[in-house]
Amino acid sequence: MIETSADLTKKLSAAVEKMPAFPKSVQRILELTRDINCEPKELVMVIEKDPVMTMKLLRILNSAYYSLPRQITSVNQSVVYLGLNTIKNMALSFAAMGVLPQQNAAGFDIQRYLMHSLTTASLARILCQKFGRGDTDPSDCYIAGLLHDFGKVVFAQFMPAEFREALALSGEQSMSLHTAEKQIIGADHSLVGSMLVGKWQFPESLADAIRHHHNEISPENTVQSCLFVADQISKKLSMGNSGNLQVEELPPALVERFGDNMDGIIAQLGDLSKVVDEAQSFTKGV
Amino acid sequence: MKVKFWGVRGSIPAPGPKTVHYGGNTTCIEVRADDNELIILDGGSGIFPLAQTLLRELPVNANIFNTHSHWDHIQGLPFFIPIFIPGNRIKLHGSFDPISGEGPERIMAVQMQYSYFPVREAEMKSRIDYVTVMPNESLAVGSATITPVLLNHPVVNLGYRIDCNGKSVFFTGDHEPHTNIYSPEDDGFAEYQSLIEEQFHSIVEAIRGIDVLIADSAYTLAEYQTKKGWGHGTFDSSIELAMAAGAKILYCTHHEPTRSDDDLEKVFAEALARHPEVAGKLDIRLAREGEEVVL
């Protein structure tokens, strides 16, 4: 059992600082930074497809050192504020920490995790663009999707034995993974993920969305609503696997908010092969 | 408030007969607040001649504000003689560097390694304090208030606004106006465009109503075409910023090291000719080593 104390947050956040990023982004960053004239937008695209790099970048940007006029939620914002060369060198320093191993002691498949995170991120952005009321930046929904399961990769990396047990329990008893995590570890990935972004002064709305992505949520909040629906669509259409195959029902309030049930929403989104192809191009062929 | 230029050259010192009028030293600006508090903006090679004059007023209490850590803005600091004299007090202010995870203390620590400089940092006899400043968080130096503003350069660069009894001066350090990294047909173009417009607006607001704007005007428009992303402005971008902020006087600085006095005056005149709209609104000058302006 772990305690959800300030000490634990401190310990895990220190661990995340040393955490290596995903193989493909490390490889691409090393390639791109060898060319002084590399395309800035390509660099942004690589960073924003890697939950570890994005998390680390936003952690520094949102730190008290820059006291920026608003909290930063996108890689593009960080380029505008700190300049391309600084972001490039930060990415290079993240890349220099090595790569997340494909095989970890928890038996957690990071490639499928990344696939799920990337498709959830893209779907959340698309949902916001299509169903949003203009009060929410679609990139806030993207970042919520990208980071919503970050707690799992932290567990896999730093508490592999316990996480392995939780994965097994969830599989054996058809129990949702967050319930199994609570049982084995004492805290679930949504809590750990939100504790980290909370500590790092990310926007409260992002911490809330991560914290409550398995709960019945208030449909007033666009980020939470889009994240919840995107997460379920990614699982329902088997776009990736984040260790939890249970598709949750859309609560009535969300059916009302989106004006349709899950199948109807999926139908309205049309062809989603681009979402899958884009994510696959980033998770495969390292 | 008084402002005096001790170094106006960018990149590398450029001494010699062709730069004798505007000067060859790299960036250093002395600002005296109303109670004669000493504020020094950047420690390029121009800080060395400034240091000579300070030996007459010991003990020195110097507040140095570093815009960024590139050589032409720090290379004079180990030759700032007051740092070696007991009784002097030096405060070096600068930004947090996200790559090294360190603040302005690194500027001295790196330069004063024994292979590059004979005196070690530990051997400086004055009292030196390092202060990591944050964008938009003002701090007081006697009668003056200094506000750092985050600008755009290949390393984190802070511009500084100094206000003193209703008078004000702003120095950009090195700054290139933001440009869109996306093409108009890309998905991210509109979002990025709104971000950079918002940032331009916030910089303009930070400079609003300034009496003296000292701005990086390294390039001509033609030169800029091959130097995008290098982190410097043009005469035209500085004029645009000054006009948008309602500045009264604009000093163009960070002169190219290869630019002779004659060439500098020529490209400056061409830039002025492109901007007849400034007539009666903005007084535009070339920063010149030794020039002093009293506000």
Could you walk me through the main structural features you see in this protein, from its secondary elements to its overall organization?
The complex is a heterodimer of chains A (286) and B (295). Chain A is mainly alpha-helical and 286 residues long. Chain A has helices spanning 6-17, 23-32, 40-47, 51-61, 75-82, 84-95, 110-131, 138-147, 150-158, 160-172, 177-184, 189-199, 204-211, 222-236, 252-258, 262-269, 273-283. The mean pLDDT of chain A is 90. Chain B is α/β, with parallel strands linked by helices. Chain B has a single domain (2-294), classed as Metallo-beta-lactamase, Chain A. Chain B is built from six helices and 14 strands. In chain B, the strands form two sheets. Chain B has a seven-stranded mixed sheet. A seven-stranded mixed sheet of chain B has the order 7-8-9-10-11-12-13. At the A-B interface, helix 3, helix 5 and helix 6 of A face helix 3 of B.
In CATH terms, the superfamily of chain B is Ribonuclease Z/Hydroxyacylglutathione hydrolase-like
CATH architecture label of chain B = 4-Layer Sandwich
Output the CATH class name of the largest domain in chain A: Mainly Alpha
Shape descriptor of chain A: globular
Strand element count of chain A: 0
Instruction: Report how far the terminal alpha carbons of chain B are from each other.
Output: 5 Å
> What's the average pLDDT of chain B?
97
Tell me the number of helical segments of chain A per DSSP (H or I, 4 or more residues long): 17
CATH fold group of the largest domain in chain A: Hypothetical protein af1432
CATH architecture of the largest domain in chain A: Orthogonal Bundle
Residue windows where pLDDT falls under 50 for at least 5 positions of chain B: none
Main beta-sheet annotation of chain B: 7 strands, mixed
**In order across it, which strands form the biggest sheet of chain B?**
6-5-4-3-2-1-14
Count of discrete structural domains of chain A: 2
Going by helix content, strand content and strand pairing, the class of chain A is: mainly alpha
Number of strands of chain B: 14
